Amino acid sequence: xxxxxxxxxxxxxxxxYHFFFVPLTIGMAWVVxxxxxxxxxxxNPVHRRLTMFFGRLFMIVFVLGTxxxxxxxxxFGMNWSAYSRFxxxxxxxxxxxxxxxxxxxxxxxxxxxxxxxxxxxxxLHLATIYLVAVGSLVSAFFILAANSWMQHxxxxxxxxxxxxxxxxxxxxxxxxxxxxVAVYHTLSAAFLTAGAFVLGVSAWQLWRRGDSPDAPSxxxxxxxxxxxxxxxxxxxxxxxxxxxVIMTQQQPMKIAAAEALYHTEQPAAxxxxxxxxxxxSREIWSVKVPGLLSFLATGSFDxxxxxxxxxxxRYVQQFGPGDYRPVVPLTYWTYRLMIxxxxxxxxxxxxxxxxxxRGRQPASPWFHRAAVTAIGxxxxxxxxxxxxxxxxxxxxxxxxxxxxxxxxSPTVGAGTVLTSMIVFTLLYGALAVVGxxxxxxxxxxxxxxxxxxxxxxxxxxxxxx
Length: 465
What we know:
Layout: H1 3-42, H2 45-78, H3 81-115, H4 122-151, E1 156-159, E2 164-167, H5 170-174, H6 177-209, H7 215-250, H8 252-258, E3 270-276, E4 283-289, H9 292-298, H10 308-319, H11 328-355, H12 366-373, H13 376-391, E5 396-398, E6 402-403, H14 404-407, H15 414-444, H16 454-464
Antiparallel strand pairs: 1-2, 3-4, 5-6
């Protein structure tokens, strides 16, 4: 592989690894805030213990996400300096806002939350975790605004002499239609990820020691995770449909590759399964639902959806000679794996709600095993979705403005990229082992011991303050 392929592999590995933690961090911040709100409102010590239990798991995920995110941003200057020079004026402000505003908001108040249990009053302490949760949302917004500009660039002009994009309208960048729907979809997926995590961890505890004194508390947490997963699943479905319509308008080649639609159709059929050639150049066999793709892509069952080869001919005329098709098999299957993994997680949560209705408990341990498996399903769905989003945009790094091959650093050799990729991959592998072991240890520890009465604790906190 040459320098370009290695740089793409390294950024892909780093991004997918980092993105395991991002949605979970966003969703778990609100889970912890929800449990602590219940404790402050009711004074029930069970809610406080659940807050501390899931708060420890949240802190581990937060740290892992922070470390891997910092390394990811360094690659813009290391492997993608030509890209950074071209987009720096536009790409820089959202990243700066994310770092200076959102990240420091999270980092500051998570410290107060961790060390303020016996130093802050209950309501003031609760406010700190809400600020962390809000900071995570703001952070996600600015990162998605930067990425959405790569998908649908707006609010800029290109200085041809300098060879760089110049920002003309920051408001247009931050209110980009791609940004708004991406935020809706990503945050919905984050809450689905957190709901499945709470459900899986609680089910694991009930599976291991369902007769312990903490079992009623974990049953309550499991039900909360089920409802959260189900509600988030509905939001993911809704936002995904909106995103599909926007995608068809802005990146029709991506939706065509996602459906292996080689020729324009009106109405267009949705592919349940398509088997094609290994190079993705043509269809061999398929099973399709007539008219469904038209509805998903345009909102009308009679809508027109352009095909891969028709778009290729149009792009050659518009942008010049070149191959403007993404890797069709990869785009097609990551799209379906994203949907399948997410839908299966929602189905497990819905099944759990049915099995545990009116205080019932599943008679067989099969559901607990399925619920534990559900922890990984949204994580896989998020990763497949991210791969689909980025690979479906190829060969563009900034759609219609800069090809990926033009963004790589001209002075960094293949050997340097390969060495750093191997080192980082090994370090990330070791970090993954440490992270999983830490999560498993704290999840297996169970709920912390009960604390003194909340009024006594508040009085001690007031004296200390």
